[in-house]
Specification:
Elements lengths: L1 H16 L5 H4 L2 H16 L6 H4 L4 H10 L3 H25 L3 E5 L2 E4 H26 L2 H10 L4 H30 L9 H28 L16 H19 L2 H8 L1
Antiparallel strand pairs: 1-2
C-alpha cells in the first residue's frame, strides 16, 4: 500500500513541478521541444566507441535542473525504473562482442564493454532530458504544441488520455489492495497464488472505469475533437534560446570536446 501511495505522490509531483516559474518554465514549449529533440538525436547518433564524446552532454540535464529548480532525487528514481530494461540490452553486448580494443593497465577493454557503457549512458541522458521537459511543461501544453507541429491529433489525444488514466489506475489498484489486505489475515503483500486474479480484476475494473469516464465525457459534450491549448506566442528570446542550445549540441556532436581538452591539457 505504501508503494502505491508513493507512486501516486511521485506521479503528481511531475504535474506540481510543471507549474513552476523558473526561466526554463517560462520558455516557450516549442523551443523546449526543439531543444530536447536535437539533444536526443545528437546523443543517440554517436557510435558505441565514442564514449568520451558523450561526457560533455551530461552538462545539459544538470544545467536544466539547476535553472528550473527540479529536484534531482525524483528524476533519478524515474530514470532507475527504465534502467533494468536498458541493462538487459547493454549487458548482452559483453557476450556478443569480446574483441579487445586496448588495455587499460592490466584490464582489457572490449568492444562489448564500450557498447554496454555507451547504451547505459545514452539511456541515462535521453531519459533525463525528457523528464526535465515533462517536469517543466504540463502535458496539456506539450500535446497542444505537438498538434500545432502537425502531429496527428489522434496520437496527441491518446497520449493525453493515457497520461491522465495512470492516476485513475493507481487509485483503483490502491482500493483493491486495501480490500485484499482486509481479507488476508494480516499477511503482507499479495500472495503469488493471488497475483493472477488480482491483476485480472484490475484489468476488468479498469475497463469498466474507462467506460464510465468516456460516458461522463460524452455527457459533457465531448465529440472526439482535440482542442489544442495555446497560451503564448513564440518570442525572439525563445527562438534565440532554442538556436543557441541546438547549435551547442550540434557542435558537441561534430567535435569531441573531451579529446580537444585532453590535447590542450
Amino acid at each position: 500500500m505504501a508503494n502505491l501511495s508513493s507512486a501516486m505522490k511521485s506521479f503528481c509531483l511531475l504535474e506540481q513541478l510543471a507549474e513552476g516559474n523558473s526561466p526554463l518554465h517560462r520558455l516557450h514549449p516549442g523551443a523546449k521541444l526543439a531543444i530536447t529533440l536535437v539533444y536526443v538525436v545528437c546523443v543517440i547518433s554517436f557510435p558505441a566507441s565514442s564514449l568520451s564524446a558523450l561526457v560533455p552532454f551530461t552538462a545539459y540535464p544538470i544545467v536544466a535542473m539547476a535553472l528550473s529548480g527540479t529536484p534531482w532525487k525524483p528524476l533519478l528514481q524515474r530514470i532507475a525504473v527504465a534502467m533494468p530494461f536498458v541493462l538487459f540490452t547493454a549487458l548482452s553486448n559483453l557476450l556478443l562482442n569480446r574483441r579487445v580494443l586496448y588495455f587499460l593497465g592490466p584490464l582489457p577493454v572490449t568492444g562489448g564493454l564500450l557498447a554496454c557503457l555507451s547504451i547505459v549512458l545514452k539511456a541515462f541522458l535521453t531519459v533525463g532530458a525528457v523528464l526535465v521537459l515533462i517536469a517543466t511543461t504540463s502535458m496539456e501544453t506539450l500535446t497542444g504544441q505537438l498538434v500545432r507541429l502537425h502531429v496527428p491529433k489522434i496520437l496527441c489525444l491518446q497520449l493525453t488520455m493515457t497520461y491522465r488514466y495512470i492516476s485513475v489506475l493507481i487509485q483503483q489498484a490502491q482500493r483493491m489492495y486495501a480490500a485484499y489486505q482486509l481479507r488476508s489475515c494480516g499477511k503482507k503483500g499479495i500472495q503469488m497464488r493471488d497475483m493472477g486474479c488480482f491483476l485480472g480484476q484490475l484489468l476488468l475494473r479498469s475497463f469498466d472505469q474507462a467506460e464510465r469516464i468516456y460516458c461522463a465525457m460524452k455527457c459533457r459534450g465531448y465529440d472526439g475533437t482535440y482542442h489544442a491549448e495555446c497560451r503564448w506566442p513564440v518570442t525572439a528570446r525563445d527562438a534565440e534560446a532554442a538556436c543557441v542550445a541546438s547549435a551547442a549540441f550540434l557542435l558537441l556532436r561534430v567535435f569531441n570536446l573531451s579529446v580537444l581538452l585532453g590535447k590542450l591539457i
